Amino acid sequence: MTNFPPGTFAPAPGQGRLSRMLLTQARTEFVLTLRNGEQVLLTLLIPLGMLVGLTMLNVVPVPSPRVNNITPRILALAVMSTAFTGQAIALGFDRRYGVLKRLAATALPRWSLVVGRMLAVLGVVLVQLVVLGAVALLLGWHPEPAGVAPAALLILAGTAAFGALGVLLGGTLRAEVVLAVANTVWLVLVVAGGIVLSVHALPGPFAAIVTALPSGALAEGLNTTLVTSVTPWDTLGVLLAWAAGAAVLAARTLRLS
Amino acid sequence: MTPPAPSAAVEVRGLIRSFGAVRAVDGLDLRIQPATVLALLGPNGAGKTTTVEVCEGFQRPDAGVVRVLGLDPIADGAALRPRIGVMPQGGGAYPGVRAAEMLGLVAVCAARPLDVGWLLDVLGLTGVARVPYKRLSGGQQQRLALACALVGRPEVVFLDEPTAGMDPQARRLVWDIIRRLCADGVSVLFTTHLMEEAEALADQVVIIDHGRVVARGSPAELTSAGTERQLRFGARPGLELGPLCTALPEGCRASEPRPGGYLVEGLIDPQVMATVTAWCAQQGVFAEDLRVSRRSLEDVFLELTGRELRP
User: Fold this and answer.
1) What is the pTM (predicted TM-score) of this model?
2) Which range marks the domain in which residue A94 is found?
3) Most buried in the list A12, A237, B9, B31, measured by CB within 10 Å?
4) How close is the nearest chain A Cα to the Cα of B97, in Å?
């Protein structure tokens, strides 16, 4: 009656090891990001091009040495590109392709659907830091040694803030809408959100708004700590507030499909 | 001491699920005994996928009781999910993931998964193991989704249109797998449009429409494989059936299941035929397409759910 020997599909259910599930999910999503051409363009090539271009060419007013003031802003850009734009777009299309439902139907706990994504994002941010940091050092970057640890903290908080915002956007809207909104927001924040232009170059009330944005907070915070080694606790607070607020909202609004 | 009666693998009682003003599922009851196969049949929009998704814990019932392996799919979801296998409609995978990576990821979630390489091979996916999901054909995506549903060695599997988009060879393979699952003690709930599929595989067929059960039973029961036969004809809608029912011998029933389509069920003999034609003459109508037949499951389905196209 069948070509399969008896017992082929005899039930033997059970949950896999949690750490292994979570790491396999994170590794899969990490590898998929690095395999995707558009994601590599967004997360590595554009930041690299801007790092080199803004350092070599005098297109925006930046104190000397230029590379010391440009690099922290590019690191902020890299975090935003990966944790917010790249992740929102990936999540939007993953939902379209039924990934979340597929994973939610396994023994993987629900919370790991998001935690796994965050681990993958952290992995990509690490790759960005290594690549961008190495190129910046070649360009003559001298970060303040005392500012490196606070910078790492800011990058973690920034990843959390942008990551939660990315889940909020990518987890609620249709994939095409996510794509359009995520790219538009990215462009607006790069130009006017405190990433390329320092908030100090912006007109008064506008500067106050931008300082409170995660982009402005992360770029200014990284710039302050890596150039002057002063720890900017206020910007860390701004980032953590965005992370908490967006995470609470995202947890309520995330849709599987 | 007598062992306790085996509880149902899936039990649904009085399930109601609405989307806005539309009742997708309207008071549905289902019961699947362990190691049996239930086919959920129905036209598009009948509530099949909603029913399955409630059983899987993806949707919350508005009313009613749903138990899978005795567990509440939402409240006990964490305990239930390792024990069930799910094939969602249209599959589900990262667009860029390779077939083998996806199955590997789902396999890691299980304690004692089937061998991933073997499963890919059985389902004819070895040749595309490194091809990204979005470049697989519809049938290959379906087979990968089936593999993901089976890899964790579940006790119950839910297959939402498992053979949609498959070629006949792949469909036969899926049938073979479903038979083996059942023989190995796995309970199966699958949805389908294909009567042939339900007749070939299911111990129990449940036909639903507008969220309600319109017929249920084994394929043999539904098609009345015994002595019962049926006589059907077309005529002007709304004819007075009273005189015909009176004239028919005991055990024969006359009805108009859809406007202008008349049905006489029972032991159809020449006498019954004469009674029907005499009644037609009396009503002044000509019986068109008069035929006597044993019902196929497809007849049952179309009679119950109508012949007009669904969106």
Assistant:
1) 0.84
2) 18-253
3) B9
4) 7
